[in-house]
Amino acid sequence: MAVIEVEHLHKSYGGDIAVDDVSFTVGEGEIFGILGPNGAGKTTTVECLSGLRPADRGRLRVLGLDPRTERDAVRRVLGVQLQESGLPDKLRVREALDLFASFHPDPADIPALLDRLGLAAKAAAPYRTLSGGQKQRLAIALAVVGRPRVVVLDELTTGLDPHARHATWELVEQIRAEGVTVVLVTHFMAEAERLCDRVALIDAGRVVALDTPAGLARRAGQQQRMRFRPSAPLDEDTLRALPEVTAVTWRGPQLEVTGTGDLVVAVTSLLARRQVIAADLRVDQATLDDAFIALTGREHPQPGPAGTR
Amino acid sequence: MTATTAPPRMTARGFRTLTATQARLLLRAPAALVWLAFPLLLLVVFANIPGFRTADDDLGGRSVLDVYVPTIAAMVPLFLGCTALPVTMADHREKGFLRRLSVSPVPAAGMLAALLAVIAALAAAGVAVITVVGSLVYHVKAPASPGAVVASFLLGTTAVLAVGLVAAALARTSSAASGMGVPMMVLNFFFSGLYLPLAELPHSVQEIGQYVPFGAVMAAWDGRGALWAHLAVLAAYTVLGSLLAARLFRWE
Known about the structure:
The complex is a heterodimer.
Chain A: E1 2-13, E2 16-27, E3 31-35, H1 42-49, E4 57-62, H2 71-77, E5 78-81, H3 93-101, H4 110-116, H5 132-144, E6 150-154, H6 162-177, E7 181-186, H7 189-195, E8 198-203, E9 206-211, H8 213-219, E10 224-230, H9 236-240, E11 245-251, E12 254-259, H10 263-273, E13 278-285, H11 288-296
Parallel strand pairs in A: 3-7, 3-8, 5-6, 6-7
Antiparallel strand pairs in A: 1-2, 1-4, 8-9, 10-12, 10-13, 11-12
Helix pairs in contact in A: 5-6, 8-11
Chain B: H1 12-28, H2 34-47, H3 64-94, H4 97-102, H5 108-137, H6 146-170, H7 174-191, H8 203-209, H9 213-222, H10 227-248
Helix pairs in contact in B: 1-5, 2-3, 2-5, 3-5, 3-6, 3-7, 5-6, 6-9, 6-10, 7-9, 9-10
């Protein structure tokens, strides 16, 4: 059964179209990524899904419930971590969890949750004194404290250092291991690649691709690229003659060979026959980054200030 | 926003925890509580001004202090209702705390009611302190018609709290909340005669003043006009303000 159904969602603010036409479904136990550049409509999509904003058009369902007309019921099964939300400076970690737990009939065990999130030592710390990573982990804790069946996590790791980011990713995997369905909004390719079972790539309010991360990368092209410094002079034309090779160019002392199929095997065996060693060999395969650029026709956004719509 | 959907229910435990949390947060921000100490200080200062405690024939045998104590007591709900209430809520909104609560099963009315309960309890405590210190320490006489005074004071308090709730429901930032609340507070002070004796004001201004919550309270205390009419004005503020606040409440 689909846990989340979004059909032809459309939402504008005044004359600005935030979400033009977005459709996708999320299956039970999936980690589903919503990926796209800033301003693509990712946050608006999950805000509509959470019942925070009414959709102008389209059909939204969370476990078969309408987030607007059955908002109360949706809020009991859906845990949400949103951007631009915080807590009062003087509220302590434990108090925040107790507060949000009190809204639910059967909340999670708070000491265990604190432990798992690495916040046990911070239980008595006021919110203001927490680091960015700790605030983010607390936000996740608040999203899952009501034992939701689905969680929405929006720009979870924006502004976190690499260590905190990896710790957060592990947490998301733990949440899924407990059978919770996860919708993850991100503009980090690496995050989607690491965590997501499937990804919807959104650009300018539309879904431009919906696939597994590997599938998306494949769509960006089968192209592979290898670079190396030949240990002895090498006739480029013999390389070009290989059926796997599509282009050969010199980049300073390095030779760049692009191609498809078993490119690496074909090239290295040729080099071996000619007794040439490929020094400093590097092989690049198409990544989600390439897919992003290929499918949206723009450079992928560098980690920048949050605040997407 | 919530007005278009079925109002979400809230667990009793959730409401209790939210109320306790609000109380804790207010008590941890002592700046908001200066306003409890200020009227008490004013009472002590007034009581020590020579002549303020002697009976005055112009005041019907009452002292200046006797007359002023209810006005000083009225400062407590005015301060709390017009500033602490909207500023606290707007601060929660500004920090994104309300946005986070809005995706939990918490209705707008529950959010308002929890903060209101805390503010009302503080106001009751503040008024009780002024009354007790006034009567036990300075032997202030009870008002001539205590029934009218108590009834209008209670309704006056609920009226300013309801008006404060509307500001609390709407203000996007704590400074915007001050911008709404402080003029409201000053207007009420003015018509409660804190700055100028009401009798010195033009008749038409006095008439208008009876439709300002604490103007109506003062008119009830002074026996100007019909008591029921003043109480009706205050009840209208209370009911309309609360309904409006629950309807207009903004999470972000």
